[in-house]
Every structure is written in structure tokens, then in C-alpha cells.
Fold these 4 entries.
Entry 1:
Amino acid sequence: MTDPRSQPIPADFPLATSSWDGAERAAIQRVIDSDRYTMGPEVKAFEQEFAAYFGARYAVMVNSGSSANLIAVAAASLDDHTRLQPGDEVLVPAVSWSTTYYPLHQYGLRLKFVDIDPATLNMDLGLAREAIGPRTRAVMAVNLLGNPNDFSTLGSLCEEFDLVLLEDNCESMGAEFEGRTAGTFGVMGSFSTFYSHHISTMEGGVVVTDSELYAQMLTSIRAHGWTRELPSENRVYPKSGDAFEDLFRFVLPGYNVRPIEMAGAIGREQLKKVPSLIAGRRANAKLFVDRFAGRNDVTIQRETGRSSWFGFSLVLQNRLAGRRSDVVRALAAVGIESRPIVAGNFARNPVISRLDAIVPESLPVADKIHFDGLFVGNHHYRLEAQIDQLVGVFDRLAGEAA
């Protein structure tokens, strides 16, 4: 296997790059040679290897991280023991991606927005405590841009108020808090294997859990809500023992969000590279943090535990505040791609009028991120020259504003 950090380095600073080499292409060919393209033994092997690597009992692969959130919320809502009923409130951070929120709404749950911590960019846990009311039943914790939440504090909060903890870890594969992998703190945790994420299976996502019941529910919900992939003895619905009859027995309201077999095969090769991919990102993060230390015109994300550094956030301050469009143009002019910090303050998106949501009168930190925040990519290969160039752009703009 080739060390992905030794691959040719792009001359510019893109948002995402590939970490594939001959191993992934051979995996694709292996599937082609097998003539089995839908979910099969490669996906199953990837699930087992993924769970073992990240310290979970079970992993269920789907076609995207968004689908991973969907089936996790579905399983939690359909489980009689979680008490998630239509109208129950779920605490959500005000800054995240759309499919953090949509599955909760689609299962009749009420979104209760909580502002974020300006340093970590994750949910402000002090405000989360204040937001808990008599109908609050769960927390959807989002580990933003590779940065894990403070799960010691959050776990205690959930235990104190008997809240279900779900984890959207789609941006934070490989992050750790107190020696434990992000994505494994909640009853279920989602991961994404989309092209721009830590590993790529083209499209793909995974849900991990330590619950046998949830693993079996997720397996059923992933494919039509049937019992076909469930073991003979399972906790979802008893099989008849007649193989023919059990082919088309539907027991849960499910979907078709199965991954393709190529994604599983690619994932198995990508998983082998995770240590070097994360190490490369952390080495770049050290450079980034060092270069931007002490500036008063931009703030960067403060690491909680051990971030896996999905990307590098930059929040404009003082003389650069209000100049995000100038910054984005200046970065683009030298080949540095940038994006808003996820979706900014999601409550400012027009879709909020169609969601059952409780939005505070003021979300000042999320608003600051919405108007003055951006992020640039991080990669597995060394970015010293690119980070120096990034600093140079900020130095020039700051000088013009002086």
C-alpha cells in the first residue's frame, strides 16, 4: 500500500483531494470481476473492519452520511424504549449541515436551536443546559470540522436529564476525546465517506452503535424495512424459518439507502490508510495554528480533545470583520478554495419556515460565523507552502485595512 502522503501534491490549495491509489482501483476491479455490484460481502467486510477500527460493536454502511443520520434518527424514533415521540424537543447546534436537522423534523421532532461556543464551534453546553425544558428528550451533538465535543460535560448533562444522545460525526472521522473515538459516545453515531471527507468511497456513510437492537433496526431500515438481512434469531421481528416467505417480509417503515459493493471494497482499502491520513492532517493543523497564533484580525477553532481537522476555520475580526467577500476573492485569486463554515447560522436559511423549530431571539455567535466565517481545506499531504500563502493573503488584506 502506498503511503497517501507521498502522492504528488497539487500546486494550488483545493478544498478536497483524492487519497486513492492503485489499491482502490484494484478493489473496484475486484468487484467488477465478481460481477456483483449491489451490497454484498465487500460491504459486510467493510462494516466489520470499520466497527473494529473505531471501537464500536456494530457498523452499518449506507449511501451517504446524510442517509446515516436519517436511519439513525429513524431507529431511535421507532424504538419503543427511547421515548422519542412527535413533538419532543431535540437540542441542535445552530451551525451544522442541513441533514443534521431534516431527519429530526421528518420524524416529527421539534428542533431546539442552541448557539455555539465561539472557540470550539460546537454547541455551547452552558446554553444547552439552559435550553432543556420539560419536552426535551434528546441532543444531536455535531462534531464540527473534525473537532469533538466535550463529551465529559455533555455526557453528564444527558445523564442528569435522561436525554438520548445522538452523534453527527460526519466531519470528524478519527477525532478523539479522552482516548475514545468521536462517533461512539452517543447511542448511535454517523460518519461520512464522501469525496471531500477523511476517507472516500465515492459516496457513502456509516452508522456505528454498541446496541444489537439498533444495529438490526438500522440494517432493516436501510433496505426497505424488511427482514431479509437479519439473522434468524434477531430482536426486530421473528423470522418464520421459511426462506421464501422471509424474502419479502416488511416490518419497519424503511428506505432504500443501500451502498454499492464498490463503495465497500474501496472503503476497506481507505480504512487501512486512516492512521496516515489523520497524521498528515494533524501535522498540517500544527502549522496552521502556529502561523495564525496571536492575530487580532481572525480567530481559529480551538481544539477539544484531539481533532481530526477536517478543515481550517477562519472567523474575521476587527479590521477584517465584514470583509468576507473581499477575503474570498483574494483567496480565489491565488488558487485557494474556501467555503462558508458549514451552513452558517442554519436558522437564517429560508427552509427554517418549513421546519418545526424553536429558535432563540438571538444567536450572536452563529450569526458571527454566518457573516464573517469561512474555512479552507486540509489534506493528508504537507501544506506548508499553501498555509504560508494563506497567511500572506491575510497579511496583505490586513495591511490594506490598516
Note: The longest strand covers residues 136-142.
Entry 2:
Amino acid sequence: MPSQYVIGVDIGTQSTKAALFDASGLCLATAARKSFLYQPGPGIVEENPERQVAAVCKTIRQCVRSAGVPVDAVAAIGIDGQMAGIIGVGRDGRAITPYDSWLDTRCEPYIGKMKAANEEIISKTGGPPSFNHGPKILRWKKEYPRIYRSIHAFVQPGGYAAMRFCGLDGDAAFIDRTYLHFSGFADNRRGCWDEELCRRFGVSPEKLPRIVEPHAIMGSLCAAMARRCGLHAGVPVVAGCGDTAASFLACGATREGVCVDVAGTASVFAATTEKFLPDRKRQVLSCGSSATPGLWHPYAYINGGGMNVEWFRGIIAAAGDGVSSKLSFKEFERLAAKVPLVESLPLFIPHLAGRVSPSWPRLRGAWAGLALQHGLGHLYRAVLEAVALEYGFYKKVLQELRPSLAFREVRRTGGGAGSTLWNQIKADVLGVKIVPVTRDEGAPLGAALLAAYGVGLVPDLVCAADAWIQTCKGISPVEKHAATYAVRQARYERLLVALNVWSCENATN
């Protein structure tokens, strides 16, 4: 039987998800396993890399069993994963360190050290130093020198799982180009490590993995891992890409002007361009290589932005009268939808875990403008609106970088994509039509597309994305809301600046 199925896996922050597709893009099975984050103290967020690998194996096995497809008909596996964190691997290719998560903020002092070369780093990598690879690597080098000396290379969860699947050693460690804007040490346009940046911060290029294409075949499934996955040995494993890049591909962001809103754990706003656009001046946007050859994604995100909704319902509302704690998200949305749009509504700052875009690590969340007449609906609407206002700021920066860029539409995906109110608020703030993607597989769909393209099951990645991805009727901006949101946008941005000054002064004193 010819191989005709592909499996895409996403190693996410909250869970690992897998999906099995046929060559036409029909999803035959999905599976998920909850992540096990280790958070013993402030700023610490780690995970066991082998638990991540085990979750990948279990979800693949479950998909194969649920779909009932012949195991010898699986053509390829693609794995995407969290992008900004790192895992140190030894010469044997096994993890020496825990997964140092993108939510872990202990590298903050080293962000400051790298900011001395901010403009050069942004110009070359496409992104500023933040809670990502460069500062994290420097933390391991400075604070754990013995462990650092034994690390052969630093990789990400998706790459590590692929290495384990193929039995690769440390010399074969890899990173694909969609991660390079988080690296701190790459020449992104050329797709190589930058010797000057490495020398400046004392990081040997030998500790950095080889750079590959997202659809490159890295090896084949070894016998031991095949048994754990319920597959035959020898299935090709492609490099895959970062989870955000996979989500962009899964939305069909394969042409210039198509924007994406990923309403997940991290709230991400991105555009698609044909040019590399490093944000040297504002230092807000990162410009990452697209999984689609020849394209780029300038984007920014809120650290844990999608978690704010869960936080509100689980902690703030539950601390009320006992009735509010029983309200569903839809009921909260109904309360918020009843609140009329006026300039004086309260504002919410969504950066409970620090601001990433730009890097303001000491800024934290806040409400402003609360009055006695404000209730749960006002508060919940402010939480939703804050993400839209942050996106409005990102769009303004993007327009400064590329004034001629035409925004075709914003494709929305992720857990919050079904919220009609949230979609309308975003459309009004951005002045762009929001088009929800009806497929709910998310990043695993993007990883599966790369797997299919890598082994030639689909001959053209863009055409395959067009065929696989479906959207529903979009939500257009309400013209009469534009003036009100222009005022609220300006107030929001001024509030951000004032609170960041206060946060820095408070931390210093």
C-alpha cells in the first residue's frame, strides 16, 4: 500500500497535540496530552524534555489507533514546538538541562546585557533579545558553567523530539530557520550563525545547532521510538518548525498581506511580507522566516495573553459572590456584549507576565479608569479589548516599517477564535476584516503540511495550504466605532508608558 497519510504534532505550552491527515488534508484523528510544567518559584517555568517526547509518542499512537489506518501507510511525521525556550543536549543527543520555557523569566538580567547590541541583533536576527535563546544561553553559561561546558548544542522541544525519534546525536542537533529571530546570534537573511555576535557575547558557534529548512527530512523513525508510537520503523521525520510559524501556515498565511491572529496561550499578531523587515527603531516586532519559502512574518505577541481570560474567570470572578464563579465564558461574553462602547470604559493592561513586544520585563497587568458603576461585564470586556489594543499598536509599528503594505484580512485561529465579540472588537480596533479559520487542528495542521511537502506527497506547499485550509464568513469593522477606538488606542498606549515607568521605579527602589 502506498504511503498516503501524514502526522503533525505540536508541543505546546499547555498540551501536546497530534493530528493525522490524508493527502487531501482530511483530518482522520486527533489526540492531546496535558503538559507538566514545573513552577517551584517566581519566574521559574521548566519542563522535562523526556516527558515532552513521551507525550508526542502517546498522541501519535492514539491517532493511529483512532484512525485505524495501516501503520505502513504513514508517509511522514512533522513536529512543531514552542519557539523561545531552549534545551541543552549532550554529545549523545540527550537532554542535559530541563526545557527552559519561554515563560521562564530568570534570564532577565542577560536581556539587559544583550540590549547593548540591540540594533545589531535586530538587524541581523530580526528580533530583539527577550525571554528567548540568547539571554537564556548566557544565563546557563554564567550561572551553571559546569553544565554549560557539557552542553553540545541548544535546541527547542520540536527539534529535540525529532532528534530522539531519529536517534540523532549532538553533532546532528538542528534548528530550522523559523526560529532564528529568537536566537540572538544568527544572520537570518543568510540562514547562518553570525560570528561577530557569537564572539561579542562569548558563545561558541560550536554550541549552536545546524540550521535547516522546515521541510527537510532529518532522518527516519528508529525502531525503539516506532514501538512507542505504534508505527513501523523507517517513517521519515521532517524538521518541522516553530509552533507560531506552524499556526501561520495552518491559517493559509502564504501570501503577502494576509495577517494572522493566533488566539492561544500567547496572543500573536502577524503579517506576511515578501521582505525581511527588522524593527530597529521601535524594537517591537520580530521578523521571522515563514515556513513558506521566500516569505517573512513580522509579528509580536503578548506573553501568556490568552491565559488572561482563564485567569479572570478562575481567580477574579470566582472571588465574587459565588454566582459569578459558575458563569461560563459564553455567559461572561454576553455580559460584556451588553456594555456600550464609549471612550470612558476602563482599560486593562494584559502583561501579567511582563511585556515581550517590546521587551519591558518589569511591566505587569493593571486596570485603569474603574468606577462604581463598572461590573463584571466591563472588566471582562476590558480583558478582551486589551489584546485588540495591543494588536493595534503592533499594526501601527508595521505600517511605519512598510507603509505600502496592504492588509488583506486577518485570519484568526486558536482557542479564542470562536468568540464573536472578541472578533468584532479586533476588527474594529484594527480596521481590518477578521476571518476565522474553521479548521481547529491549528499548529499540527501546519506541521503535517510540511511533512507532506517534505516527502513529496504534495508537490507545492502554497497550493496544498489553499486546498487544505477552510475559512468562514468574516467579521468586518463597524465604521462608526473607528473614532472611539482611536481615542482608546491613544489612551492605552500612554497608560502603557506611564505604568512601565512606575514599574521600573518600583523595582529599583
Note: Residues 482-508 form the longest helix (27 residues).
Entry 3:
Amino acid sequence: MVIGVPKEIKADENRVALAPSGAAAFIGHGHHVVIEKSAGVGSGISDDAYREAGARIVNKPKSVWEQADMVFKVKEPLGDELNWMRPGQIIYTFLHLASNKPLTRALLARKVIALGYETVQLEDGTLPLLAPMSEVAGRLAVQKGAQCLEAGCKGRGILLSGVSGVKPANVVVLGAGTAGGNACQTAVGMGAHVTALDVSISRLRYLHDVMQGHITTIVSNSASIAEEIAKADLVIGAALIPGGRTPVLITKKMVRDMKPGSAILDIAIDQGGVCETSRPTTHHDPIFRVHDVVHYCVTNMPGAVPRTSTYALTNATLGYGLEIADKGVAQAIEANPALRKGLNTHLGKLTHRAVADALDMEYFEV
């Protein structure tokens, strides 16, 4: 196959889908790799590094799309990229279709084979390609949340850790999966008082054990959420339904009842967000205020630390990408059930049930 890696065009997105080591791996398997000029610059990776790995550099993004049998990306196709897709072409990237009906329709109309990193799922329910970016986002959420509480962002003017004689901030984390768990660990490490809510008692028990009791865990329901966020200085929304739209856990009324200057950091905004008052923002303009509560809702949070994110993403996506390239999509998804769940659209048909349910569209069994 010809593997094409275009430069990302989403606002403030500096990650690249493939590190030079990944390009070398594809070439070692007998494939060709085409990289758009400067695709890796935002992650500190030069064109020469890709050339040394055996990849070919092209000047125009359209050339990448025209040559590629499989387009390796970080974020969903946008703008002209939608017109460059062609029937049967494989798109391998984060898609987050449950909150994006126009993109779903475009993928179906162009009859591409689209696999979403966020829906590749192992038998135990884990999401191996989403996990590294969830890990980054969870840790980054605390860092950004701390900034949102500063006076410069019109926050409460609170230091997460507190100081001697002054109590620390109350941080509430909704969702105890990979992103939520990493947010909890980072917030505890910074000295905050942390409360985690989740519907899974086993996951809460695991977090409590890992944190050696330095965390409060509560079973999540509408009453417990309302009670805890009313006391919170920082709320981190990290709930997830694989492939589906994130449930709205924080209502407008709950936001009104929060402390003035408190903050909500909605990691789940890619899938619609956990808060009724959330809306997508960018790294360039990341925050807004509703009912005197600071909202941070950047849709590509790991893009703030692109070098770390690029290498972490390549580590996770490369093996599955090689399976697709070596075997072709049909044989790869037949042999690997996890990859089969990653298939979102196939030649004009929507093949992921959670996406179809979220968008009220027709679903086709793979």
C-alpha cells in the first residue's frame, strides 16, 4: 500500500499521525510512505528525519490524498480534504462521528473506508488507540484547570495545592476511565482534594487502591453529581461511551449552582461533552464563561503537547495500521475483532452501531 500522511489542518493542531520510526516500519513491510512537507514540524520532526526513514516528501496536501491507499491522520478530515477522499480509500484517524453528522454523511457519500481510533476496542472493553491520548488529556486537564482558576482567567484565584494554613482546591472528576484516572492521579499529586464519580464500583475501587486512599470515590448519579459539583472549584468531565455521544451529566441548573469563578474542563467535548453549557473551543481561544463559571472545551487537547502526543499515538496506532496495510481491510478486520469495532463507514454504509444510534441513522452489520 501507499500510506499517506498529510499535515493536520485543524486549528492549532500540531501533532502528526506518524513518527519517522512508524514510517520506517511501514517501509520495512514493503509499503510506500508519502509525507506532506512540514507535516511533522509542529511536533519537532523535520522532513529530513522522514527522508532518512525512507519516506517521500511531497509539497501539496492534495498529492498525498491522490496517491494514498490509506490516509494516516490525527484528526477528522476537514475542508478540501473532504473533496479529495475517493471511493475505497482507507481513512485511519480520530473520527468522533457521534457528534458530527455532516462528516458522517460526507464519509458515506464519498464511499470511503473509515476507521476511528476511538472505537477500536478490545474484548475487555478497553480502547487501546484512544488510551494514550486520554492519558495525555487527563494529565493536561489538571494543568489547564489550574490555569482556569487563576485570576487571569477570571477564576476563583485558587492554588490547587493550597498552602500551609490554607486548604487545597476541591477537584471533582466525572468518569474514572483512562482520562479520569490520570486526571485524579495528577490532581492528587499536585495536592488537591479529589473526588471521583463513576457508575462502575470496580473502577472506583481500583482508583481508591491505586491512590492508597488519597481520593474520595462516589457512585455517579444525578443527585451525587449535583451535590459534588456545587462544592467543587474545578470539575473535569471525562465520561465516555465508546463511539457514542457522551451523556450530558451537568445541567444548566447545576452550572448556575456552582461557585462563582469555579471551572469546568470538558475532556469529552470531542464526543459532545458532559456539560449542557459546553461548546467546542480551540487552543487559540480556549475558554468562555457561563453563569460566572469558566469553561475550557478544547476539542484536541493533546495538541497542546504535540511531540509527546505524536510519539504516544504512533506507539498505539502503528501495529493496527500495519495489520491493515499487510492484510487489507477485509482480512484485517476478520482476523482482529478489536479492529472490526474500529470500522465506522464502509463503501457508503455506516457500520458502527453506537454512532448510528447517536445520529439516528441506519446501521449495517460488518
Note: The longest strand covers residues 193-198.
Entry 4:
Amino acid sequence: MINGKRVVAWIPYGRHRTVEILLSYLQRDHDRGLVDELWLYMNTRRGEEGTVDREWARRIATRRDWVKQVRRPDDVRIYRKIQMNTMYAYRFMVDEDTIFIRFDDDIVYVHEDAIEALVLDASSGPQLCSFPIIINNAVVSHHLQQHGIIPLQEPDWPEVGNHCMDPIGWTDGQFAVQLHELLLSHIDAGTVDELFMHTSLPLRPQQFSVSCFAARGSEYAKINGVLDTEEEKWHTVVRPRELGEDNTLVPNALVSHLTFLTQWRHFAPGAPGGHILDEYRKRAMQHGA
């Protein structure tokens, strides 16, 4: 609990290989009294791989009483594109005294100050979403370059545009590898705060990759948790326009997002970034729980 608010972290869960890294950080923050519950919103694939992921989630929820499996409502349309089905999770998030923090299932680093900073910002309102600095998010990379926090040095560090599907920030796998290597070096040096921004930044209504954000349950209670479009567009374009409020980029909260689908081949075994996931796993053992 933070600032009188119950805190629920939740993951649109599909892949245990990366979630087991994220779990180390969330266990750390649960042990510190910052995270009350973790919800694994079950969104796994069919087939043998999905069976393995579901069994892992079952074991974790059985062994840790603060971790819960949450399944889709029974009376909803199921989309073949599984990302669409995450919008149903918000039907369970209507408690007005709770702050909900969403984590993609390939968030592989959570700074020790991130949870508290996000909750305090979300509690203060009036914005719908409080976003952390997300390493490997095109719009965030754009702002970090413009503020001189990450390199902008052609050709090795090309300029990222202010667009969620920017061809560098969203598509360029080598750029993503460099971002992760930069963060890993800061983790090892104990200087991650050098990647923080100096002040919060308003995020105007525009498509923004929602790999991680905090929001108030009271906002979902207003609509009974029923989103009228897929979750990313609703949180970053549709609802902010309805409310007349910009979202916020919180300057002293930082997480790392492994890859977009467009970047994955650069992180496969034998590729330039094939070592990155194991490097994050090592850091989680050192800095997580």
C-alpha cells in the first residue's frame, strides 16, 4: 500500500520465460510493502507452448498467496489477435481505492523507485495514465534524445521521431540492442538515475505503446471497466481526449521493455542481441528478490 492506496500489479500474461524475470522485481517490491497483489491475466497461446506457460502460472499462484490468476469474462468475444483480448481485464479493476500498474509480459527490469513514483503520480491525478520512462519505447526514446539523456549521434544513434511506430524507435532492432546495453551498463554502475528526466512530461493524446503504466481504479469504475476499443488506443488517444487531459511521463520511474515483434530477430540466439535476455536475468538475480 502506498499513500493509502492499495497497489495491484498486473500482467497480460503469455510468456513465463520473461515474466519470471519481472516476477523477481515484483517480489522485491511486494516484500517492501509496495505491491499488494500481482494478477496474471491469462492471455496465453494455444498449443504445447501455451500449456507450459499456463502450468508455470498455476504453480506460481499456488505457491505465492499474493499472486492470482485472472481469466477473461465468459461472455465476451474472443479475438484471434490475442492482444485485443487484454481490454477485458479492466472489468476487474473498478475498485476506487486501488492503483493498478500494468506490465507487459516482457518487462525485464523495474527500478527500485518505479512503483512508488508511479503510484504517487497516479494518485494525484487528473491524468488517466502515469507512464514510466520505458527503455525501448519509441516516443520515450524521442524525448530522452531531445533532452540529451540518451545519445543522438548519427549514424550509430539515429534520431527517433515522436511516433509510437517510428522506423528507428519501434522497428530498428539494432537500436533496441544498443538501448538495452546502455541500460545494463548503468545498472552495473549504479547510475540508472542518470537516465531519469528532470521534470514530468505531459504526453498529448497520441498512440503510445502501453508496455507499462499506472491508473486509478476510480477511472475504470466510471465506465464499469468496459472499454469501447482496444486498450492502447483507449488509454492514449480516445479517453484522454474525452477527459481533456494529457497523460504523464513520470521522470523518476524507469522500466525496460525487451522487444517489439518488429525487433525480435535481433534478439534471437546468435543475433547481436541474443545475449540480452540472459543479461537481464543475471541482473534480476542480483537486484530483485
Note: Residues 6-287 form a domain with the Spore Coat Polysaccharide Biosynthesis Protein SpsA; Chain A fold (CATH 3.90.550.10).
